[in-house]
Amino acid sequence: MGFYYGKLAILGCLVLSSAAEGLRVKRVRAGQHYKEHDPVHIVVNKVGPFNNPTETYRYYSMPFCHSHSTVEEEKRIAMEENVELVHDHNYVKREGALRHRLRMGESLVGDRRETAPYEVTFLDSVDWRLLCKKELDVADLKKLKDAIHNNYFFEMFVEDLPMWGYIGDVTNEDIIIGEVENSKTFLFPHLHFYLGYNGDQIVAAKVTTDMDRRVDITNVEVPKTVTFSYSVEFYEERYLLWKDRLTRYADSNFAVPNSFEIHWLSIINSFVLVLLLTAFLTIILLRILKNDFSRYMELDDDALEEEESGWKLIHGDVFRFPENSMLFCAAVGAGNHLLITTLFHLTLAVTKVLSTNRRGSLLAGAVVLYCITSFVGGYTAVRLYRQMNGKNWVHCIILTAGLFPAPVVLVFMWVNSVALAHGSTSALPFTAILTVLSLFVFLAFPLNVFGGLMAKNYANADFNAPTRTTKVAREIPTEVPWYRSRSFQYVIAGFLPFSAIYIELHYIFASMWGHQLYTLFGILFIAFLLLVVVTSFITVALLYFQLAREDHQWWWATYVNGGMTGLFIYLYSFYYYFHRSGMKGFLQGSFYFGYMAICSFAFFLMLGSAAFQFSLIFVKYIYSRIKSD
Q1: What is the dihedral of CA 153, 159, 160, 164, to 10 degrees?
Q2: Of 263, 363, 447, 583, which one has the fewest beta carbons inside 10 Å?
Q3: Considering all CA atoms of the chain, what is the largest pairwise distance in Å, rounded to the nearest integer?
C-alpha cells in the first residue's frame, strides 16, 4: 500500500510539472542540419552585472524589443538611415519573450531562456535589419543607464552556443567616484551576429556591438526614441567539428583576461610536493613505529609498568567508543556518501559519460548521483553504529539521511528568498524545487533506509578490537607543550592539505563564481585523490603523536583533523571574494557565502570520514602488533 501511494505521489509531481511546462515553448534541439534559407533560432537568456555571476535577471526585464518590425516600417526606417535593405527570401515571424522549457540542470544554474524576435536564416548574411523602433520613457532610460553603470552584460544562445555582449558603455567615468560631469553613458542598440558553419551545421557563434550606432542616454529626464537593429554574417569554419564546438569557449577572452591561463608547471609542482610530503611522512612514521615495536617487544610486564610514557600504555582505553556515538557514525556515513558521490561524479566527467559542456549538466548530475548513492551513507553509518553497541539504529538512519541535506535546505531557503525578493532568475522555479524534493523523498531517503537495513541484518556487528577495553578510563595528561596541543594540530591538519590544492582551487573558484568554463577534469580528479591521501596521511601522523602523549580520545580528533581543510577552504573564500573578484551586493554575497559554506561543510564531512577510516586501520594495526593483557 505504501509503495502504491509513493507511485501516486510521483505521478502527481510529474502531472504538476507537466502542467507548468505546458505553458512554455518547446525548445529547439541543438545539432540541427540546415538547408539554405532555413530559419535559425536565436534564444535570449538573461542579463546581469558582469562581476556578480549569480545576480541575473530575465532578459526582458530590460526594455528590449518583444516583436520584430513590419516590412513597411523597416523600409521607412531604412530610407531614413540611408541603408540598403535587401529582401530576397522569406523570413519566419517569431514573437519574443515566450519562455522555453528547461532541463533540470538549466533551471538549477538560473537559466531562463526565452524566444527572441530576430529573423535569421541559414547562410543569409545581412548588413542591416530593423528589429524595432521603441519609445523609451524616463523609467526605461533610468533602468538602462543604471544597468550600464553596473556593467551589465546579456547572454544569448544559437544552437546551445552561448554569446555574450555588453548592454552599453560609459566614457570618462571616474573609477572611484563614478559618473562625473564629462562622462557619457551610451546604449548599444545594434547587434552583429557572427555565425560559423561547417557543412549544414552551425558550430560557432559570437555577437558584437557597433560603436558607430551607439545612442547617448546620459540625460534620462527626457524620453528618447531608439532604433534597435541587427546584422548577420555567416562564415565557414572548415576545421571545427560539431562535437568540438565548445572547445573555443575555454579560451574565450570575454569572460576572463589573457593572464588567466592554466599554469601546468605550478600544478605539477604542487603534485610533486604532495607526493614528497606523503613519502616523507610514511618513511618517518614507519621508522618510528619500527623502533617502538622493537622496544615494547623487548620489555616484560614489570619493565613496561616503569615506562613513563608511550602509546602502548593506553591499550586498554584506545578502543573506548567516543561520546555522541550516533552523531559520530552519522557523520562518517554522510562523509562516505559524499566521497563516493564525488568520485563517481569526477569519473563520469573524465570519461565524458557526463557532459561537461552542456549548461547545468554537472550540477544536475551531482544531484542525481547523490540520490542514487544514498545506500552508502545508511549502510556505513549503521554498520559502525552497531559495532559501537548502538541500539537506536532507526534514529541513526534518519540522522545520517538529514545531516548534509538539512543545512543545504536552510541555506537554500535563505538565498532563494533573497533571490525572489530581488526578482532574480537565481531563484529556483517551482518545478525544479518539486523535482529535487521528489528525488530526495522517493529515491535518496528510501535508499538510505535500505542501506541501513542491510547493515543491520547482514553486516558484521563485531568491532574486532585487538585489545580489551578497561572499565575505568585512564586519565589524560593535561600539561602538554603548545605545539602538541589539539588546537595546533587542527591548524596543521587543515593548512598542509589546503596548501597542496591552493592553485587548483583558484581555477575552480574562477569557474564556479565567474564566466570561465572548467575543462581540466582529469587534473581535478588527480588533485582530489591526492587531497584525500595527503589529508589521511597527515591525520595518521598527528594521531601517532596524540597517542604517544597518552591521549586516547582520538575518534573525534581524527575526524575534525581531517575535516579542517574544509574550514580553510571557507576562509579562502573570503579572501577570494574581497581580493580576487569584483563581486558585491547583498544578493551575490548571500549566494556566495551561503553555498560556499555548504561546499566547505561537504569537504569537512568527506575528508573527516576518510581521515578517520585511515586512522582506524592504523590504530588497529599498531595495537595488534604488541603484547597486551
Answers
A1: -10
A2: 263
A3: 110
Give the 3-state secondary structure of 238-284. CCCCHHHHHHHHHHCCCCCCCCCCCCHHHHHHHHHHHHHHHHHHHHH
Phi, psi dihedrals of residue 307, rounded to the nearest 5°: -65, 135
Mean pLDDT within 54-59:
94
CB atoms within 10 A of CB 182: 9
Q: HSE on the CB side for 525, CA within 13 Å? A: 15
Closest by Cα among 627, 315, 338, 329 to 461: 329
Going by pLDDT thresholds of 50, 70 and 90, the confidence category of residue 527 is confident
Alpha-carbon distance values, 415 to 108, 117, 530, 588, 590 (Å): 13, 33, 33, 9, 6
Predicted local distance difference test score (pLDDT) of residue 523:
80
Is the Cβ–Cβ distance between 212 and 202 less than 8 Å?
no
> Tell me: the pLDDT tens digits for 577-627?
999 888 999 999 999 999 999 999 999 999 999 999 999 999 998 888 776
Q: Using one digit for the tens of pLDDT, what is the confidence trace for 411-455?
A: 999 999 999 999 999 999 999 999 999 999 999 999 999 999 999
Answer for the pair 626, 292: CB distance below 8 angstroms, yes or no.
no
CA–CA distance from 556 to each of 325, 533, 560 (Å)?
A: 10, 19, 6
Distance, CA of 424 to CA of 417 (rounded, Å): 10
What's the number of CA atoms in the CB half-sphere (13 Å) around residue 263?
Answer: 15
Q: What would the grid cell of residue 479 be?
A: 600539561
Are 108 and 360 within 8 A, CB to CB? Answer: yes
pTM for this entry: 0.88
Provide the pLDDT confidence category of residue 628 given band limits of 50, 70 and 90.
low
**pLDDT above 90: percentage of residues in the chain:** 53
Q: For residues 228 and 133, is the Cβ–Cβ distance under 8 A? A: yes
CA distances from 289 to 255, 294, 465, 544, 623 (A): 53, 9, 19, 9, 11
